[in-house]
Please model this.
Amino acid sequence: MNISAQEYRTSFLLRTLPAECKAVSCSMPRHANPKHTAAMTTLAGFIAGMPKAELHLHIEGTLEPELMIEIGRRNGLELPWPDAESARRAYNFRDLQSFLDIYYRATSVLVHEEDFYDLTAAYLRKAASQNVRHAEIFFDPQSHTARGIAFETVIRGIEGALQDARRSLNLSTKLIMCILRHLSEREGLEMFRQALPWRRWITGIGLDSAERDNPPSRFRNLFELAHREGFLLVAHAGEEGGAPSVREALDTLQISRIDHGVHCMEDDGLVAELVRRQIPLTVCPLSNVRLRVFPSMREHNLKRMLQRGLCVTLNSDDPAYFGGYVNENYTEAAEALGLLPGDLVQLARNSFTASSLGTLQKQLYLNELRRYDIETPLQPSENRTR
Ligand code: ES4
Ligand code: ZN
Model:
């Protein structure tokens, strides 16, 4: 019986190995042992089966049009789109702001705790099916509290699904609360204070929404406070803003990760510092193409970022809007930029090392990845540089 890499991983997760794989603990690499008969896999199959972490994912950005229509209907709400197809047709963005306008509009169907639960559960099922082993998930509470939804409703719905998934899907998760930068720091501070009673469920504080005209330094006090309170700090920078925006976020917000950051490449000194300090960048290629940060995937600077030694990770941002989840981001970037298997494994390795997990948990995931890399035979044409 030949099995695909995907089936092999699934069976590994379920701890029921197929008959041919009894010798899985054998120290010989699978491809060197004729008794191990896994099918040769394509690059897309290799990506699909590869253990990985997702570190840049807005939970509201996983609201697929079908679920949006369904939740809107059950809440008796009017939407600008009569059905999922017409919503999808409207997802044609000029820039970040034209996306955000639609994103906040669609998000307004989320009202009850069960809406947030259903949204999060649907994403987690998808993530597990793509062999995401760990997810650090953003949420935008101000986009809900501004509509009169209680913070408690939002976080109980999301956290309920996370807790269920940790048990049923064998996937670890963390929650990062993002502050909307188009609102004032005072409003952000108010949100932060409201969130403090729920801090047992919140690992980090992030900064998102419209980057232009909303520089990181506006949120210096909030991030200072969050730092003193011991939160992981991250910020979107260098998406529609240039290298100076990345520099400012790094210098004023005490962040340990930069979301997007692709425009850092315009400043050699900045790149040198990011490389030296191995500050992770959570890059989202499909998002960048759909929001016209780059004219096409072939012009994306991801490969050059890797070649410079930056700690780059690949992520899906708002997958319901940008045409794919994390595996599609890996696959489309790999095809357009000629990424090699070694690059893909490096990106997955970075995703675990850049996570906020403890050393031991990181090591377990890295071992899983190393074993996958050794044991998954690629078709000869794909196998050039491992
Ligand atoms: C976002 Cl792509 C992107 N950029 C900034 N803020 C966001 N919130 C949700 N998606
Ligand atoms: Zn984002």
In short: Residues 5-46+372-382 form one domain.
